[in-house]
Specification:
Blueprint: H1 11-24, H2 27-34, H3 38-51, H4 65-102
Helix pairs in contact: 1-2, 1-3
Length: 103
């Protein structure tokens, strides 16, 4: 048994399916012909109606490794800063209590 891979549709192919449905008038038949779910067709159609051909382009962008590294470092530094802020807050509270006890 082989694993099914997800088919990637090019914007031109998506547009051809949309135009074919407009010509034939049957969403179900056209979707069966191309083995796509009617819900997918309607997503493509809504995107096409809203944004034109640009709406049919894939919006997935792979994150660059350098950017991923910077985001990880940023997260680590934020955690360190939060820990320092917590320590300062605890020391400040302890100092306030100590001053109150001396009075």
């Amino acid at each position: 048994m082989t694993a099914r891979t997800r088919r990637r549709w090019q914007p031109e192919e998506k547009l051809a399916v949309i135009k074919e449905v407009q010509e034939k008038g049957s969403v179900v038949e056209t979707c069966r012909k191309y083995s796509i779910d009617p819900a997918m067709y309607y997503r493509w159609k809504a995107s096409y109606d809203t944004f034109g051909v640009d709406g049919l382009k894939s919006h997935y962008r792979r994150m660059e490794p350098g950017l991923r590294k910077l985001m990880k470092e940023n997260s680590r530094l934020k955690k360190l800063l939060a820990e320092k802020d917590l320590t300062v807050e605890m020391l400040s509270e302890a100092l306030k209590k100590r001053r109150m006890e001396k009075r």
